[in-house]
Write a structure and sequence with these properties.
about 375 residues, Peroxisomal Thiolase, Chain A, domain 1, nine-stranded mixed beta sheet, two-stranded antiparallel ribbon, disordered N terminus
Amino acid sequence: MKKPNRYRTGSAIAAIGTAVPKHRYQQRTIADFMVRYFQYEKDIARKVSYIYDKSGIDYRHSVLPDFHQNGHLPVLFSSKENNPLLSNRLGIYNQGALELSAAAVADCMKNIKNKNRKKLSEITHLITVSCTGMSAPGLDIQLMQHLSLPKDINRTSVNFMGCYAGFHAMKMADAICKSNDDAIVLIVLAELCSLHFQPGTDMENLVVNSLFADGAAAALITSGKKLKNTDQPALGFSGFHAEVIHEGSEFMTWQPDEKGFLMGLDALVPKLIEDNAAQLVKQALNKLSLKKSAVKHWAFHPGGRKILEAIQRSVNIEKEEFIHSYNVLRNFGNMSSPTILFVLKMIWQAQKKWRDNDYIFAAGFGPGLTIETAMLQPVIA
């Protein structure tokens, strides 16, 4: 069997790490909290029960202990009459995002083989990604200090872009490594979505509260030169493609407000994605002169069950062909930007032996309405 090309030009993901907070909730537990805390009337309570039962989510994680029913003192949601201010939410973010990010980086570095760790740990660039909190100094400088990174490290922050922001970070890392083959880029994505739950009883808000969760991910991205003379498994970037569907500009929004960050999620989002996904996949593949049959693994951002089902119909693939997206949704919910790396990590871990033509097609969706894609290919077996 032909071995995958270890020395290709361009960049590759050498390791992925993930982390979630210690508070793990069954979806039903969060539904019960929403009804109890916001004191929903019976008809709203029935809607909440239905939405959560049909979400495709079994578990979500949060930095907050508030949703437990076993005597935990609430950290944020203490009174329905006093909806937490944005400043209260961001105060928790500033500590929680750093802790979760550091855990994801530690998990990432554990996935570098011991003999390669020194060579691949000399990080030259740091890219942080988040849309659920911000400050100055921000997460990038916090991580520099916590990880004892060089004081002159090149750093960039990708803020407030939403679920597809991880693709921007990967594109930036790819460009950096192509222009400097000595570069080692650490991207860190952290989202604490549960800090921004809101009390509204409209269907849009009830759905938003049912989907989002907290999580972080990290990826170490470097050049073919750096991977040379190692046997470090890696996923190389073959190409990227993105489109903005302007008619959906108001369908998915994320706005700062005195009460927190407010999510808008129109019920037409799955339909818009279904109408456009197949053509976008075709265009992305055409850029690389590939056919759909070349894709052996599909990694779609699990924005929600209806979105995954819309993709399935549009692209005409079976559920089993992107089962890892469904599995991440079921076990973690939608964690916004880090979620795609959870899916890629799951695919990576499930694949015992790679072949050179085992292409992975990854895609994410977010405000705009924006669709971002990346094509990846194993660098070594």
